[in-house]
Amino acid sequence: MNRTQLSQLVVLAAVAQHESFRKAAAELGIAPSAVSHAVTMLESSLGVRLLSRTTRSVRPTREGQQLLASLGPALGEIDAAVAALADIRAHPAGPLRITMPRLAAEDLVVPRLGAFLRLYPDIELDISTDDRFEDIVDKGFDAGLRLGEHLEADMIAVRASGPWRGAIVGSPGYFAQHPQPTHPRDLIGHRCIRRRFASGHLYRWELEKHGRPLVVDVTGPLILSDQSLIRAAVLDGAGLAFVFEQRVEEDIRESRLIQVLEDWCPPFDGFHIYYPSRRQMRPALRAFVDFFRYGS
């Protein structure tokens, strides 16, 4: 492979990522005609069609997908090496993309963002909130925050919180009309507020006692996708809810909510910052990890 092909491969990867010649050109800082020419020359030299072009979209062909799947890690290593060199300064700098659930952003990260950005004013922090577990390498993120039990084995994980715990709660008004459950089987007779994840999956309540797990497929007239909305609904007496205890501690303490089945809700592994193993870790990412590490 010659140097010309290397630059053409970079162009191809940008077009495939954006599914657009014009957006790829904007990212690379070159003319759209130069992008089209680079891809055409690469296809000609390799003797295969790499992109399928229509008036509305640009998608990799099967051969293009195969090439990009092999090419991605290599380009990622090049980007990381170049970014590491660019970040060798008195303090960390440059773009930093992080994915995390909205809950982690609200409770763990956003309350400390002011201090972090004052300490590292040259870091451009781009936070994406999504409940889906993202492949951070495939999606171009530097790192993510997720519950430790959901992390892949090939990821480096750094604790970002202490143990968390679920809590089954209802309002005093709700319990004035419904008996408090004393066993998970009693939940079947209750109006439960269910949660739908971004993937479309409805959460089944995961309980445990004495190391014995129990999954309850609750029913109820209300489905929400955000824990803040679920909290508001349970406070209004809409039904029972299963939320993180950290979100309703004050409500329980002030008797706005009543907690039940506590012995079926043991603590579990909390949130972790995770990122792929790399020989060279960018200073900006190192600063983020160290700042938001649990206990820092």
How would you sum up this structure in a few lines?
With 296 residues, the chain is α+β, with helices and mostly antiparallel strands. 39% of the residues lie in helices and 23% in strands. A hairpin with a 2-residue loop joins β9 and β10.
Query: How many helices?
Result: 11
- Helix content bin: 25-40%
CATH class of the largest domain: Alpha Beta
Strand content: 15-25%
> What's the number of extended β-strand segments?
15
CATH architecture of the largest domain: 3-Layer(aba) Sandwich
Q: Report low-confidence residues grouped into runs of 5 or more.
A: none
Number of domains: 3
Distance N terminus to C terminus?
A: 47 Å
What is the overall silhouette?
Answer: elongated
Could you describe the largest sheet, including whether it forms a barrel? 5 strands, mixed
The H/E string reads: HHHEEHEHHEHEEEHEEEEHEHEEEH
Per-chain topology:
Blueprint: H1 3-18, H2 21-28, H3 32-46, E1 51-53, E2 58-60, H4 62-86, E3 94-100, H5 102-109, H6 113-119, E4 123-129, H7 136-139, E5 143-147, E6 155-159, E7 164-170, H8 172-175, E8 193-195, E9 205-209, E10 212-216, E11 222-224, H9 227-235, E12 241-244, H10 245-253, E13 258-260, E14 267-268, E15 271-276, H11 283-292
Parallel strand pairs: 3-4, 3-5, 8-11
Antiparallel strand pairs: 1-2, 5-15, 6-15, 7-12, 7-13, 7-14, 9-10
